Amino acid sequence: MTAKTAPARIRVMIVDDHPLVRSAVRQALGVPGLEVVGEAASAEEALDLAPQLRPDVLLLDIELPGMDGVSLVRELAPRLPDTRIVMLTASREDRHVLEAMRFGAVGYLTKDLSVEGLARAVRAAWEGELAMSHRTAARLVQRLVETSRPGAGLASPADPALATLSARETEVLARLAEGLTDHEIAEALTLSPRTVEMHVGSILHKVGARNRAEAARRYRVRG
What we know:
Blueprint: E1 10-15, H1 19-28, E2 34-40, H2 43-53, E3 57-60, H3 69-76, E4 84-89, H4 94-103, E5 107-110, H5 115-126, E6 131-132, H6 134-147, H7 167-177, H8 182-189, H9 193-207, H10 212-220
Parallel strand pairs: 1-2, 1-3, 3-4, 4-5, 5-6
Helix pairs in contact: 2-3, 3-4, 7-9, 7-10, 8-9
């Protein structure tokens, strides 16, 4: 995206399942030139509300009920070509940064950001700048350099279908391959069994596996 002339007010939507976090972010953005126009507590709510509101900037957490934030970026980015999607999360994992940016995010912020820093980052994202800390940007560049080398990659599987999985789906599949049940996976990843079940269904669909055992086998023999 190219830089745009900022409107009188930059319209922001917040997606986070914690009410206290949404409240804190809303307060932080209560400054001249910024306006919070909507909130969602789950991926399902975001998928319904964001296309209606079409915010200028969408702040999105990684950990969400029903679908992880990276998968949500992949779903929303094509539908909202004029919206700047910025991750706002507690996760510092490089794979989350890489996948979010690959699927259409224009920034990656962590929740220890200052109030002033958040407002600056929202404005920067709207203006077409990379909204992330210098440290995160340096790590991102380093990982991109590493994964561009022959034979390297972000844990890129030999099975192309596995490369379509989100970070969370890959975590679920890895534990399926270890022989864990849905309940055990839910405990290990701090998810509900229903959410795990949804991820498993998505995994089977994406990789074209007939059942869990086949999906797990394909994960074990990748690359």
